[in-house]
Specification:
With about 375 residues, this protein is α/β, with parallel strands linked by helices. The protein has 16 helices and 14 strands. A hairpin with a 2-residue loop joins strand 5 and strand 6. The chain starts with a helix and ends with a helix.
Length: about 375
């Protein structure tokens, strides 16, 4: 897509925060970090919130707005970009990282611990999310969980015949030429590790990485494409150009709305689960209580209901799910979040040198080296 098409899709509500950032990258464009004006057009007061494109959505923070007015917003395309901007001196009050970034953010002196007694919905959060690595670092809470979801495999159930749901579908020769994987090591390398039965895909050994490399080399000619733009991947699934791909929950929502017979896997090897949330930033100039008020608004059941129903992601507050019909939860694969947490594989931070090896291995496979 070119710049104008990206902007047109964003304006039409057809791009989410992940799609927008990836589409910019694929087009060779950079996300411009600028505060976003409130929908009223007036100058904003209070805290500044640094997040992914789209999270300025007013339904996420109504309780804050009623008390303080609209916050200021600034956006990033990815958490690494956000970290580097803050290292260079930018200081918002609240930012929106994920658990697999928090150790680096903490070690960089960017974030400060949260006082959970000031989080009014803390008792209602899923217990599984309160203590996972990244939410808690060295015994202190650094991240207030907000949204969570999955990285898994979506497939056209009317075009794919499988006996059991497994990551091995991405390597099934019966569907050669109709497979797709996101253009990242998080999907390609980790997905291959899961297909091979690796116990810890976030700390693979030399031998395991050799097996992953061999499997990815075998997979490469079977792929229709590595996708950067989620919208294009979804269009290809809708047309039947591809029959399966790695995806996030939101793809299921959009393809179901088109009446397509698609399923989102809970693979036998485990479904990948990401958790993102809100962190207090050291050096932010806004009022600290206002920052807590913002976090509390985002963690409210009302914000969660909107997130689940409109975006297809899970929310940190259990009470959010009580407001969504069982039929809708079943359609989204959220009938039992507790089971997803129990059998899911939470993303954790890969040691930087090893992460570089994952990335290098993936780039070499793509280049045919």
């Amino acid at each position: 897509m070119d710049k104008n098409e990206i902007l047109d899709r964003l304006a039409a509500g057809k791009l989410t925060r992940r799609q927008f950032g990836r589409a910019l990258g694929a087009a060779g464009l950079a996300m411009v970090q600028v505060p976003l004006l409130g929908r009223s057009g007036r100058a904003e007061t209070g805290i500044e919130y640094f997040s992914w494109e789209g999270y300025e959505e007013p339904n996420f923070h109504k309780a804050y707005t009623e008390k303080h007015g609209e916050p200021r917003f600034a956006t990033f395309a990815g958490t690494e970009e956000a970290l580097q901007k803050m290292r260079a001196g930018y200081r918002p009050d609240v930012a929106h990282p994920c658990t697999d970034n928090m150790i680096r953010w903490r070690d960089a002196g960017i974030t400060k611990p949260l006082d959970t007694s000031r989080l009014v919905h803390f008792a209602d959060l899923w217990d599984d999310l309160k203590t996972i690595p990244g939410v808690v670092v060295d015994g202190k809470t650094y991240l207030a969980p907000f949204d969570w979801g999955n990285t898994s495999i979506i497939y056209r159930a009317d075009l794919v015949d499988i006996e059991e749901e497994s990551w091995t579908l991405l390597f099934d020769e019966r569907h050669a030429g109709k497979l797709s994987v996101q253009n990242t090591s998080d999907h390609a390398v980790i997905g291959a590790g899961l297909a091979l039965g690796v116990k810890n895909v976030f700390a693979m050994t030399d031998d395991e990485l050799k097996q992953v490399e061999a499997l990815l080399i075998k997979q490469r000619p079977m792929l229709r494409f590595y996708w950067d733009d989620m919208a294009s991947m979804e269009q290809s699934l809708a047309s039947g150009e591809i029959v399966t791909s790695t995806a996030w929950n939101e793809t299921l929502v959009r393809l179901k709305e088109q009446g397509l017979d698609v399923k989102y896997m809970n693979p036998k090897e485990g479904i990948l689960t990401w958790v993102c949330g809100l962190a207090l930033i050291e050096g932010g100039e806004g009022d600290e209580q206002a920052a807590y008020d913002f976090i509390n608004a985002m963690q409210s059941p009302e914000a969660g209901q909107f997130l689940i129903e409109s975006w297809g992601y899970g929310h940190a507050n259990q009470k959010s799910f009580a407001s969504v019909t069982p039929e809708r939860l079943s359609e989204l694969g959220f009938s039992s979040p507790a089971d997803l947490f129990k059998h899911g594989i939470f993303f954790v931070e890969v040691e930087p040198a090893l992460k570089e090896r994952y990335n290098k291995l993936f780039e070499q496979v793509k280049a045919g080296l």
